[in-house]
Amino acid sequence: MGEHVVVGVGPVSMADVVSVARRNAAVTLSAEALAAIDAAREVVDSLAAATTPSYGVSTGFGALATRHIPQELRAQLQRSLVRSHAAGSGPEVEREVVRALMLLRLSTLATGHTGVRRETALLMADLLTHGITPVVHEYGSLGCSGDLAPLAHCALALMGEGPVRTADGELTDAATALAAAGLSPVELHEKEGLALINGTDGMLGMLVLAINDLTDLLQVADVSAAMSVEAQLGTDRVFAPELQAIRPHPGQAASAANLTAILRDSGVVASHRGPDCNRVQDAYSLRCSPQVHGGVRDTVAHAVAVATRELASAVDNPVVLADENRVESNGNFHGAPVAYVLDFLAIVTADLASISERRTDRFLDKARNHGLPPFLADDPGVDSGLMIAQYTQAAIVSELKRLANPASVDSIPSSAMQEDHVSMGWSAARKLRRAVDGLTRVLAIELMTAARALDLRAPLEPSPATGAVVALLRNHGVGGPGTDRFLAPEIDAAYQLVSDRSVTRTVASVIGELA
Q1: What structural domains does the chain harbor?
Q2: Which residue of 16, 126, 184, 219 shows the fewest CB atoms closer than 10 Å?
Q3: Name one GO cellular component term (predicted).
Q4: Is residue 133 within a helix (H) or strand (E), and if so which, with residue range?
Q5: How far apart are CA 176 and CA 164, in angstroms?
Q6: CA nearest 124: which of 80, 175, 75, 159?
């Protein structure tokens, strides 16, 4: 039986988001959520019947909010809102992102603060359960008034309109996909169009997925740094807990503890630990790994705090206060809190990749690699070894530095100056996804470089943990020292082992879970 997420009145967890987005978990609404939805809908229905205009219920939207819409035009108003706002352009957004944003919108609907009808919320849950994924495009969201265009493309599917992909990835139209799943489209009533599109769900979904990835990649970075320290004949003494305690950043302590555990019982490290060792201090990229990795960890922890608060939010405008029988306008749809941390994460992702690339480069320079052949080549001059693998790293790191330029400082006014300050949080999230992928590739190249160097240190034995990583690489198409060969497939194999979390699982199987 597959995974199943129940959406209630309270927030979904980050684990729930990952389960639905990446592992196709089925989704249902709790009885409490349905009761809250019904209560909020009663408030909207009473306002819709009133002669006094109510924004979002019986008026136009944005800069057109001053027009009162008569009853006979309100169904058309909702259809027009969704159709006109489904104005995205560019490449398709990844399926996991669309599923995440749909779950998060559903979670807000379930709070009882949006005023949708239960059949509308239930249909969104059914789309997720049946794997029907609306086509959402790269461009269209300014991250204020929520991720309007991406969410409108999803709302369009609930109406039985627009392109979608089925569970097996086939492109079709929403009406056909709904019929094949035994589902019927909904006709949107008052307030429902706004409720479906006015949220930060796209940028939040991408933040949650990035946090999930970076949490693992930080452990990979500790593994690759430990392998580099070991293979470059560095010292592990600088990672001692008493040295970390005098600068008590929690991320630094966790990273240093990981490095110490990974290097434990290393024959390579033991070979030069005695009084004859003339290494006074290692280079910063080795010695300061816990400080840099730890700073990234602490930044991710801040992002988790922001994401957790956002997951507990009901983002819509206007919002229904069912207990007080009223609907009120607000500014909670502004994506600034999420946009800022997305930009913070892009910065630290770039720097984590940067220090990894510097460790890699030291292996390839005969003047700095402590007795290893230039570029770790079999016959330097005839062979180039891993020279160009480092070029690939450098190109990625350069790109990550460009992606670290913040999106959240670049507001562009819209909607006839009614929406005169926007967050650009969607754009921040999109570039962070590219940055996380780049970091994954950079760490993979450091791993394969350090593994080759450890092989060249034979007969000295690596630690049990790093030796297991070397064996993992060798068993999955990443070859050891030897004459030059086609490197791209080996880089891709290492990348897959990092991205599917085989590296961290392998280390955990030897020394237990890393911090």
Answers
A1: 4-199 (1.10.275.10), 207-273+283-311+348-511 (1.20.200.10)
A2: 184
A3: cytoplasm
A4: strand 133-134
A5: 9
A6: 159
